[in-house]
Specification:
Blueprint: H1 26-33, H2 39-43, H3 47-53, E1 62-70, E2 82-88, E3 93-96, E4 112-113, E5 116-120, E6 124-128, E7 131-136, E8 150-153, E9 158-161, E10 173-177, E11 180-184, H4 193-197, E12 199-203, E13 217-218, E14 232-237, E15 240-244, E16 254-258, E17 263-266, H5 269-272, E18 279-282, E19 286-290, E20 297-301, E21 306-310, H6 316-320, E22 323-329, E23 332-337, E24 342-346, E25 353-356, E26 363-372
Parallel strand pairs: 10-14
Antiparallel strand pairs: 1-2, 1-26, 2-3, 4-5, 6-7, 7-8, 8-9, 10-11, 11-12, 12-13, 14-15, 15-16, 16-17, 18-19, 19-20, 20-21, 22-23, 23-24, 24-25
InterPro entries: F-box-like_dom_sf, Kelch-typ_b-propeller
Protein name: F-box domain-containing protein
Organism: Arabis nemorensis
Length: 380
């Protein structure tokens, strides 16, 4: 009697991922794809390329980090109305940053004080060395709310505290150049001429900041006290920090701090005249200003020592009126306006294109910063 052969079940086949680019090893494909300067184009090709964008093998693309004020939540000692969110330009999605530690200074910072109904208190944060740093603000007693900078690292998606500032202050100058942050002037709990003329720096390029040591370095003091009147953003530009002591169209004074020579000089009048609103430096090389009164965009031409007007699309200047703060990267300006909008200006086109960014409901933008994208585990 013949016995039929028993067929063994087929072995499970392991699914083999297709190559990123047919005919090339993946490590070479990754190098080629990393040269594309518009990640959104890669994301539109296939899911594998989209996953690559958020992997550790691919250089993090720039995203927009925004400090918001939540006007809809009720104020309380345990509920901060300060929100940080990140706009992912590939997914066109706003993601909240992970919550900071419970003892973070965000719970002490006030943006609106009951005694100053029509005035917003400044919250000063800057970006440096690929990190977001909250560095100065006021508490309900109108004293400095921050003694240790609050630092967010997008790559690890974690918050940490920086070393204690030698002289915690508010209404001060804050700026960054080449991964080093600077704090100058301002006032502490009470006005002090020593604090109003002082400047100190913290190098974020170090691998690890020692919280048990004073990593802040005192620098050559300022020449006068005229920079403690307002919260001022020092613009890092060509190994210098540019500072102007008054906002708007009032009579103002400008100074320049040379970060290499540790020395001060007066700002040339032809440069100072362009400070009619917020100013920023593209890649710390090209200076742009946005006129808060008429919305005109200008670029500073150092060789001619003059500001040249940038042509924008029809109606664009109207959208930029009331500009409060601006940052720049990769040919685009991101502007926060007084009526609660974020406006993007593409200065690589002629005329420059301008559009509004759709914002989360109930949140009022305070400042914008460009940093590497956060990790997105939901992509995988």
């Amino acid at each position: 009697m013949a016995i039929a052969a028993v067929e063994s079940p087929p072995a499970k086949r392991r699914r083999i991922e297709p190559s990123l680019i047919e005919g090339l090893p993946d490590h070479i494909s990754e190098t080629c794809l990393s040269l594309v300067n518009r990640p959104s184009l890669l994301a539109a090709v296939c899911s594998r390329w989209r996953r690559l964008l958020y992997s550790t093998e691919f250089p993090p693309f720039p995203s927009l980090y925004t400090l918001f004020f939540d006007s809809t939540s009720d104020p309380s000692p345990t509920n901060s109305r300060i929100r940080f969110m990140c706009f992912d330009p590939v997914s066109s999605k706003w993601d909240p940053l992970p919550p900071p530690p419970p003892d973070s200074p965000l719970h002490r910072i006030l943006y609106r004080h009951p005694s100053y109904i029509s005035y917003n208190l400044p919250i000063q944060c800057i970006s440096a060395a690929g990190k977001l740093v909250v560095i100065a603000g006021s508490n309900k007693e109108l004293s400095p709310a921050i003694s240790h900078p609050l630092i967010f690292d997008p790559i690890s998606s974690t918050w940490s505290s920086g070393p204690k500032i030698r002289s915690p202050r508010r209404w001060c100058v804050t700026g960054a150049y080449d991964g080093v942050i600077y704090v100058a002037s301002g006032i502490s709990s009470q006005f002090s001429t020593t604090v109003a003329k002082s400047i100190e720096k913290l190098d974020l390029n170090r691998e690890k900041l020692d919280l048990n040591r004073n990593n802040w370095e005192e620098l050559r003091e300022m020449r006068d006290l005229r920079f403690s009147r307002e919260a001022i953003e020092a613009v890092g530009w060509r190994k210098k920090l540019l500072m102007v002591n008054v906002k708007g169209n009032a009579i103002k004074e400008g100074v320049i701090y040379d970060v290499v020579k540790d020395d001060w000089e007066s700002m040339p009048e032809e440069m100072l005249v362009g400070w009619r609103g917020p100013v920023t430096a593209m890649e710390e090389e090209k200076l742009y200003s946005v006129d808060e009164t008429n919305g005109k965009v200008r670029i500073y031409q150092e060789e001619k020592r003059e500001w040249r007007e940038v042509t924008v699309v029809d109606g664009g200047e109207e959208m930029l009126k009331g500009a409060l703060q601006v940052t720049a990267v990769a040919g685009k300006l991101c502007v926060v306006t007084g009526d609660g909008r974020i406006v993007v200006v593409d200065v690589t086109t002629e005329p420059a294109k301008i559009w509004n960014l759709e914002l989360p409901l109930g949140l009022e933008p305070v400042s914008v910063h460009v940093l590497p994208r956060m990790n997105r585990p939901d992509i995988f």
